[in-house]
Write a structure and sequence with these properties.
The chain has ten helices and nine strands. The chain is α/β, with parallel strands linked by helices and 241 residues long. Helix 1 packs across helix 10, helix 6 packs parallel to helix 10 and helix 8 packs parallel to helix 9. It starts with 5 loop residues before the first helix and ends with a helix.
Length: 241
């Protein structure tokens, strides 16, 4: 495991202090430290499940029961997961007025449970379910929920392949990235669009970019700081700095 040095933490702390407002973009790498598997790594979910069978809107319309069997496994993992040091550090930075908002690709709700208040979920949330027939939305407390209004099988509140992103979420994320003095990317390889284009919004508007991620991203060469390390370790060290 890469060691996060005090020098990196001090440089990141300096960037956050001087390049306000700071907006954070998080990906699966922050939640894997809470025991939630990612999708795209060599050991990720898509190596075991074909996304075309389980994660497209067409697959859901064909066989919603099969899709819900897949999401039931995720619900079980989420029920056991707790916010880790990375989530808690970002919530504390927000409380101190040093983080304006968190834009997240994650659907697990761990940022909110850690105490973050301004969270934009660009890929939806596993905490809700939506009825495609009548539009009803309810909290998700069981697998294969039936719509309380019309009785149809509801869809997980996550964005599936073939669906548009939640209304207003991407627009708000883009606005925040454009206005950011610093965009801090945590736990994302910046491979999934349109979210992966958010660093360009910040850089083109004159803002700075910092990246905390295990492994490379396409923006490493344009970042003021790249830390190849875990979210919890890095952000905890940052708080001490």
């Amino acid at each position: 495991m890469a060691f996060v040095g005090e020098n990196d933490a001090a440089r990141l702390a300096q960037l956050i202090r001087t390049r306000q407002p700071c907006v954070v973009l998080t990906g699966a790498g922050i939640s894997t430290e809470s025991g939630i598997p990612d999708f795209r790594s060599p050991t990720g979910i898509w190596t075991q499940y074909d996304p075309m069978e389980y994660a497209t809107i067409d697959a859901f319309r064909r066989d919603p029961g099969k899709v819900w069997e897949f999401y039931a496994l995720r619900l079980e993992a989420l029920a056991k997961a707790e916010p880790n040091a990375g989530h808690l550090a970002l919530a504390e930075l927000e409380r101190r007025g040093l983080v304006r908002a968190v834009v997240t690709q994650n659907i697990d709700g761990l940022h909110q449970r850690a105490g973050s208040r301004e969270v934009i979920e660009v890929h939806g949330s596993i905490r809700t379910a939506t009825c495609l027939a009548c539009g009803e939305e309810t909290p998700l407390d069981r697998a294969l929920p039936l719509c309380p209004r019309c009785g149809e099988i509801m869809k997980p509140g996550v964005v599936m392949f073939g669906e548009l992103l939640p209304v207003g979420a991407m627009e708000r994320a883009t606005e925040l990235a454009h206005e950011a003095g610093l965009l801090l990317v945590v736990g994302s390889a910046l491979e999934v669009y349109p979210v992966a284009a958010l660093p360009e919004e910040t850089l083109s508007a004159g803002g700075a970019l910092a990246i905390v991620n295990r492994g490379p991203t396409g923006y490493d060469g344009r970042a003021d700081l790249k830390v190849d390390g875990g979210a919890g370790e890095t952000l905890s060290t940052l708080l001490r700095a």
